[in-house]
Amino acid sequence: MTDSTVFPDGFLWGGATAANQVEGAYDQGGKGLSVQDVMPQGIVGPRTAVPTPDNLKHEAIDFYHRYAEDIALFAEMGFSVYRFSIAWSRIFPKGDETEPNEEGLAFYDRVLDELEKHGIEPLVTISHYETPLHLAETYDGWVSRELIGFYERYARTLFERYGSRVKYWLTFNEINSLPHAPFMSGGINTPKEQLTDQQLFQAMHHELVASALATKVAREVAPQAQIGCMVLAMPTYPLTPDPADMLAVMDADHGNFVFGDVHTRGEYPGYFLRTLRERGIDLDITDEDRELLTNTVDFVSFSYYMSIAETADPAKRVAGEGNIMGGVPNPTLEVSEWGWAIDPVGLRIVLNQFWDRWQKPLFIVENGLGAKDQLVEVDGRKTVIDDYRIAYLNDHLVQVGEALSDGVDVLGYTSWGCIDIVSASTAQLSKRYGFVYVDRNDDGSGTLERFRKKSFDWYGDVIRSNGATLSR
């Protein structure tokens, strides 16, 4: 390991959130319902027929009304970039309208105003796990080809409205999560256990075409924009040196890589075509689709929380708690309170892996530790002594520095849940990621007051020093 890590000038430091996890105001400002509004327990629980009072995301942390206060806190830490998502159903309440909701558009104008006031670069996710509920219930989400047109209208509206103000865009959040969470990721209303491979892979194709189409539109409407895809990174290790385990790793990697391969290369790879043949899947792919897919991205962004292990031995396939992407537990790694393997070196591995494979600039847009924080009083100030979070983030950022020394082109780093948010996986507020503590609890109680954690000052020092204060 090098003695010091040199982050390049212009490296973008900041944080990331998603609209459905921070905004609240789920029925205000002309907003329609999204799939999140009927997921009161997050991905771990069933959907409900209608919104229920126990859904913490309905108020979340009230960013809708407190965005100026929160952005000021981000500026105090020194953020140069803030990743946030636009709620599709705030712009097109049902998703299939021909005209957008002006009140929704105006809200994000105000958010951008605040970011510009503080000199913070916006990084906007167009679709982050919040497909309008109407599109799920009427069209079965991305199973329907019609969603390509609805998404194009939505994306074009954003590019026309904000294209001169936003440089960095992401088309879909964690697009490779679709096979694992079809309702949350793709608005697919058919229950997962009833979904056929044909439907699932067709939905995947529709999303990839829509992403490429949005990239094409952006280059026409906002030519200065940089368009990226976003995948969930999951480095996978063989449980043993058995070649069969290495083949299991290759198969798992292919299931994740295909999304990035199409985004960066503009066509389906041979291993994926083999999968289609062997499963008897005949995708509806038009000549226009093939042409659209050649609109490849400018950069690849990803989330990184954990690594997994794989094995071909069914007797050893004990599912790892919290590993929603499958795999088996790695006996060499410690885990978080939610069972996610803690593997800082895996971040260096995946950065090198993606760079070697795609040769596109990379952007780490999610990374963080979900933990149960305890609010305490120190010198008359309420705070959280979250040394565990500092250690986690420090160790991961050191590995980013190692990847930079390896020659990997990394644009920036946005820590996930830079302010406490409602968890996507469990819909809890007790699973906290932020540098800022929000006084709200799993039962909905609390004042929503904001408090700076110990990690708040630590991250500010890291940003101001451009990584020089990291402990190695």
TrEMBL record:
GO biological process, one term: carbohydrate catabolic process
Annotated signal sequence range: none
Keywords: Glycosidase, Hydrolase
GO CC, alphabetical: cytosol
Active site: E366 (nucleophile)
InterPro entries named among the record's database cross-references: GH (IPR017853), GH_1_N_CS (IPR033132), Glyco_hydro_1 (IPR001360), Glyco_hydro_1_AS (IPR018120)
One term of GO molecular function: beta-glucosidase activity
Gene3D superfamilies registered for this protein in UniProt: Glycosidases (3.20.20.80)
Keyword Hydrolase in record: yes
Highest taxon of source: Bacteria
Hydrolase is among the record's keywords: yes
Family designation: Belongs to the glycosyl hydrolase 1 family.
Protein name: Glycoside hydrolase family 1 protein
